[in-house]
Amino acid sequence: MKIYRKVILTTFLLMLVSINAIAQKFTTHSVKAGETLESIAKRYNVSEQGILNYNKEIKKGQALRANTILVIPASNGVAVKKDSVSEVNTLLQALKGDESGLQQREPIGYTSHKTKRKETLFGISKQYNISEDDIKRYNKELYSVQLKKGMILKIPKYKKVDPSEKAYIEDNYEIYTVQPKETRWSIANKYGITIDSLLVLNPKLSKISDYLSSGQELLLPKILGSSIKDQETQLYNSYTVPAKQTFYSLEKKFGLTANEIIALNPEIKERGGLKEGMILRIPAKKMETGEVNIENYNFYEVKPKQTEFSLTRKFGVTYTELLELNPELKDGLKAGMVLKLPKAQTGNFDVKNALILDKINLRDSVNTLNRPKLVFLLPFRLDRLDLNDNAATKSAIENRKDVKYSLGLYSGAMVALDSIAKLGISVDVKTYDTQLDLNRTKGILQKENLIGVSAIFGPLESQSLKEVALQASEYGVPVVAPLTDKSDLSLNNVFFALPSEKVMADHMMTYVEGLRTKENVIIIADQKNKPTESALLMKFPGAKIVALKEDRTVDIDKISKILSLETENWVFLETDQANVVYHVGSLLNSLISEDIGIRLFTTDKNKAFDSEVVSYSHLSNLRFTYPSASREIGENSFVKLYRKRYGADPDAYAVRGFDLTYDLLLKLAYKRDLVSASKLVGETEYVGNKFNFNKDISSGYYNRASYILGYENMNVIELKD
C-alpha cells in the first residue's frame, strides 16, 4: 500500500504543477565601436555573466571587437525589443527586396540533421534550401560555437507561398510515378536528393509512415540531360573542395566537364566560383556488376575513419569480394562512398529499405540540447480514491485493474525520468487523470496545446486511445499505447508497445524450427486453436496430431503409440483451458523415462498455464518453453532505484513503465523524432522488455520483439535464439 500511496501523491502533485521549465529566449546584438560588455548588459537589462555564458569567444575584461555578433539572453524570459537601429536595418532589408527581415517566416515543422566532418553552414543551408541565419535562429549555440562533427541541428521547414516560384518549379521539376516495390530511399537515391528534400517537395507525404503506393505521383527535380525514365540508378559521392582547387583539376580527377560540375552544384555559380570548403555532389562511377536494385543488394555509406580491413570484418566478406561489387574501391576508400553488398549478408547491423544501418548505442548518442515534451494520459481514478482512508484506497486499487496498471506504469516511468536526467537530458512532463472517461479525455485535449509535444503516453482505454490518436495525428504527435498490441481502426500514429499474439506465435515457431534436427513433433490443440494447429502443420510437415476426447483429456494409449524412442518428442499444447493444461502436463510427465524424452511447447502461454491446478514441477520437468512479451528480472540497478524511491519491489507494470519511458526518452533525445529514431535504431532492450517498432502498411507501429522463455530446474530462464 505504501508504494501506491507514494505514486498517487506524486501523480497528484505533478498534475497540479507540471514539470515544465521556461524556455530561454534570445536576441542578437552586433557590437559597435566603443561598446563594452558592461554597457551592452545594461542596455538589455541582463547580467554580464549571462552574456558570457552564451558567447564563449569573449572574456570578461577583454575589449570587444566591432561587428562581433553576440547572443543576448532575454531578461525575465521576455524577448528584448529591437532598438531603432535594428528596425531601420529591417526596413533597409525590405527595400532591397529581402522580406525575411520585415516578416520572419514561421516554420511548419522541423527535421534533424547530424553534422558530418568538414560540413559547413553554407553547405547545410543549401542542402535544405534555407539561409544560414535560419539555421542559427533555431540552433542558438551556433552563435557562440563553431560547427563541428556530430552536432544535431534543428532544421526548420517552410511552406512555399510565393506564386512566382511556380514557373521555376515547372521548368526544373517533373512528376514521377512510383513503381512497384520502390521505396522513398531508392527514389531519393535515384535523384541524388535526401529523403528530407523529398518530403519538402511532396508535403502531402505522411510524416509518420514510409509507405508508398504503386502509381503514386511525386514531384522531383529533373536529372541533368533527360528525364528519369529508363535511366539506371545514379549514386553520388560528396567531395569537399580544398584550397586552390581549379575546374581543370576537378575535370582530371572526376572526368567531368566544368559545365557538368556546375549543373550538379549550382551553388558554385551563386557564390561566384569554387570556394574552399564547398561540398560538391559528384556522380559515383558506374558499377560494372549489373543494374543496381534493392531486391538483390543492400547499400552502405562509408563512415569517416573506416578502413577496408574494418569493413571486411564488419560485413564478413573479403576485400576481393568487396572490390568485385564496388570497382571504384581501386581508387581508395573514401567517407561518403556508397558500397553495394549481397542481400543475404548478415552481421552486427540493421537493414532498413535496403540501407545498412550501424547499430546505435542510444545512451552514447543522445543530444542534451534536445528537450522531449511528454504528456501522460492514464486512468488513475483520483476522483474515486480517498487518500486519507488507507483501507478504502487499497481496496479500490485491488479491485480496479485500470488503477493498478496506471500506478504501476507511472511509478516505473518516474524512475525512467530520474535515470534520463542523469544523462543530462531535461524533459517537460504533463500528467492528466483521464478517469476512464472519454468526455474528460476530450476536455483535456481541448485545453492542452499539442504543438511541440514529442509523444503522448496512454490512454489505456480503447475509445480514448482512438480519440487521442485522431487529434494528435493533426499535429504529427505519436501516441504510445503501453498495454495494447492492436486496434480495430487504422491509427497511423500509434506505437503499440505489446507484441501481438501472432508475432509471439511466429517467433515461437521460428525458434523451434531453427532448433529442430530430427525431433518428433506432436500437436495437441482444442477446437478454438485449430488455426494454430494448421499453422504448426505448415511449419512442421509430418507432425502428428493428437485429438482431445469429449471430456477434454488425451487417450494415453494413442499418445504412447506415437512417442519416439529414438529421438526427443516435442509436444505443442495449444489451449486456453486450465483443466486441459493440468491433464496433458500430468500425463506427459508420467510418460517421461530413460527411453522417452518429452519437451513441452506452446505458442500462446495464457492464463490457463498459470492456473493453481497446473503443477509447476511438471512444467519444469517437461522444460516447458513459450514466447513472452517480457522476461523475469532479478536484482539489478533499476530494482534498487525503484526500491529506494518507493520502498517496495516493482511489479511487471512498473518494469514496463520504466522500459517504455526510458526507450521513448532516449530516442527523442537522439533524434527529437520518435518515428525517425525508431527507423534508425531498430531493436532496443532494457530491464524486462524489448522493442522493435515497425510500420504496418495500413495502421500504426507494432512491436515485433519478444522473448523465448523456458522452465529449467524450477526456474524460468531466457532462451537465446
From TrEMBL:
Gene3D superfamilies (alphabetical): 3.40.50.2300, LysM domain (3.10.350.10)
UniProt signal peptide: 1-23
This protein's record includes keyword Aminoacyl-tRNA synthetase: no
Recorded superkingdom: Bacteria
Cell membrane recorded as keyword: no
Pfam families xrefs: LysM (PF01476)
Domain LysM: 27-72, 111-155, 174-220, 237-282, 298-341
Keywords carried by this UniProt record: Signal
Name the UniProt record assigns to this protein: ABC-type branched-subunit amino acid transport system substrate-binding protein
Protein's organism: Arenibacter echinorum
